[in-house]
Fold these 4 entries.
Entry 1:
Amino acid sequence: MSLHEKDKDLLIKLKNYFGVGSIVNHGPTTLQYRITSIKDISTLISHCNNFPLTSQKRIDYELFKKAYNLIIDKLHLTNDGFKEILSIRASMNLGLTDKLALANPKILAIEKPIIKDLKVQDPNWISGFTTGDGCFHVTLAKSPFTKTGYRVALRFQLAQHNRDIKLMKRGFNNIFRMWKSWRKFKNIYVLFCNIIDIVIPFLINILYMV
């Protein structure tokens, strides 16, 4: 998990919560919390099993867990087990590296299923989502209708891969009771919400619940 260095304390709390892993530099202004030990990954597996992911990323987790189980059972040391791990790797994130793909031309990515009927039942999910992927903007644009010559606007924005468009629409409809507009940029959808009537009251309410 990567965050700006200004959120180092949050990564430290995350590391302390799990009791495993390390925090390393990941770019000039970014830090990353990593769990790389097979023994320690069991802690993450246990957590994600108890608190399932609420997006299509759950499929990536299930593939990750499948690879973990193959390693635990030492099947990765067999030809068939190793090929299965390569197929899992080919279906996740950016897939196989050019070198791996060239060395294993017959490896095919696993067809990833789509999880249907995902629901956002806990408003804290929105708060956590905002912590990781939310943006708060103050925008200025020239305007002939104001004394200052500028129009000031606020914008709250969340982005996610378009495979989770249904979850975001349904989730924000349930939590915010509305969604104002969606605009598509490549493979992400961005949600622009009503700031004063919805976003600020919602986040204030979450703060008082903590």
Note: The mean pLDDT is 83.
Entry 2:
Amino acid sequence: MKKMAKAMAVLMVAAPMVMAPAQAMAANKYSALGDSIAFGVGASFLYGYTLMYANDFLYYKYGGIDFKQWSVPGHKSGDMLNQIRTYPTMRTDIKGSTDLTVSIGGNNLLGCASSNYSVIDTACAERGVQNFAADWPQILSEIRSSIGAAGKLTVMTLYNPYRGDEALYATVDPYVKRINAVISNTTTKTAYNYRVADVYSSFLGKFADGSWKVSKYTLFSKATRDPHPSTDGHREIARLHQLLY
């Protein structure tokens, strides 16, 4: 795996954590928070956007980075809120981080799909959006107010994994956009001092050659559909984070 010497996956009982042992004493710390996307699912060897951002960008920017992986596959917004509130070590890492990223909200909708993502339970999706809208300001308040973290915070938007020519694209899109609207709310961004990586727009539409971006950036075009980003998708998400720095 690329730069394996810099970052090794260490599985913890309390929470998954990936560290960069060689940079354990680095002055700058980066904590990745969120779900399976932030954990690297979909990328080769789990070398996802957070590790790319840590090792391929922050490491060189700072001359070293202490990477803390607190993302948990399957977490919904409520799970992440509870995690932040109840794990003292995580709170310490968040407070001491110069850089923080968040990927959350996808699982609020993911469980609403069935039959290989061919059926959408819209009542479930509605609950997922409402739960996210209630959890998100509390998550931010924990990070900025309760913990007192002052590091640079970047949050990615959700993307729609369906191609634009698929019937369910239009069914799913309003729910994705509503969660993204909560994330991108100008008043909230100003109040809690964070930036938004617009992954939704980057994954939307087609390339110049006419191919759908989600067919390259996600694993959703496989026979057994997987909405996670591909390695290329993770690379694009990392690039969007770097552009905001």
Note: Confidence is low (pLDDT under 50) at residues 1-25.
Entry 3:
Amino acid sequence: MTLTHCQESVCSFSFLEWEIQTKSWVHITRRVTTLYFFVVIPKSKSENESSVWGYAWTNKAWSTAENRLVQRTVKHPIKVYIWGCFSILSFGKLFIFTDNLNAQKMLQIYEKCLLSSAKRWFINKNEDWILHEDSDPKHRSRLCSNWTREESVQVLHWPSQSPDANPIENVWSYIKHKLQGRKTFTFKQLSTQIRRIWTSFLPEYAEKVVSSMPRRCQAIIDAGCDWTSY
């Protein structure tokens, strides 16, 4: 995340001002809890997005002139898109699909997974939680914007090009790490592996990741909106 990216924030105020304001905001009691989510789609579309590929493991071997190493690859490996959400209380529903994500699909995920997870945590009061999502055009589409307004869902303003401040990136990295070394050849096998990892997450892990937000904000402020260890 560079200063140029910060200056191009979709918010009406600068990224540094946003960090300072958010740093104060995240110290509010748990009565107002941020609901985090992520969408995993092809990496070529955004540096904040990536894909889950099947048949992923690492083999190490020497290659010499007499014993040439032939590295075989899968031309079209299994690939799925996933969406998940979590709050400081625990992890919510996971949605796995293979078709491209658009505004209609996003709305379907909101209704099927987002609301059901939020109701489990906060009963039926959407005013008690805040949705944290990036500035993807699908999230900002008229269809999705109208839905969040009609459902009284509060959406946290989020600067573009800011993966360091998004705690779901840590969860996503952990899932990718756990998938390494697991042989998956079909959509069902890959989906099953992902769901097993997701359901293994404890509520303590969700609380730990969400509680890191004040430190994340402070780290970005100290770095002058440059790279941080997060």
Note: The domain at 3-56+74-222 is CATH 3.30.420.10 (Nucleotidyltransferase; domain 5).
Entry 4:
Amino acid sequence: MAVAPHRVSSHAVRTPANAVTTVRILLTPVVIVVIYRYAPAWWVLAIGFVSMMTDHLDGYLARRYGTSEFGAFLDPLADKLMVLGSLYALVALGWVWWLPVTLIAVREVAMSSWRSRLARNGVSVPARKSAKYKTWTQSFAVAAALVPGIVSNHRWIVTSIVWLAVAFTLLTFLQYVRDARSGRPIGDERAAPATVDSALGDRATGEPAQP
């Protein structure tokens, strides 16, 4: 008979999922330097893929052993640091214009600040489906730039994906603002109660954690 894994408290800090997320944060500068110095290259793209898999790993661990409020904060922070750092590496290389990346960064900082203020009042912000598309397009923009031959011969592909990411990024922010003004549960397209688990995104449900 299988023994159920020990479930962590929602207030726990030292959890398996949070340990993996912390490693992701510590490795972010390494990934950024690798992109800046060695991209485009297939092995650099492979490193990016592995980092994405670690995101799924901490999500799996959180679903298996339980989610935590600290993890709800830490996981999207790790995602934002990795994606924004990678995008700014592309800016430094001259492959992407600084304006769309800065628009994305400003939105992410504003959203994170807003979420923190709401969290102090006991309100969680679940991720929308459109936020999932935003996260994917941001990641795809970086991945496309790492593929050999894309930037040198088809840079418009990277540019197009970056601006699409900007569109999803600003759209989701406007949706959250609209929800707040209308009095609906923020971020919930089905008007379900906001909870810690729903705010965790892929840690609780397999969806991206970034709102």
Note: The radius of gyration is 18 Å.
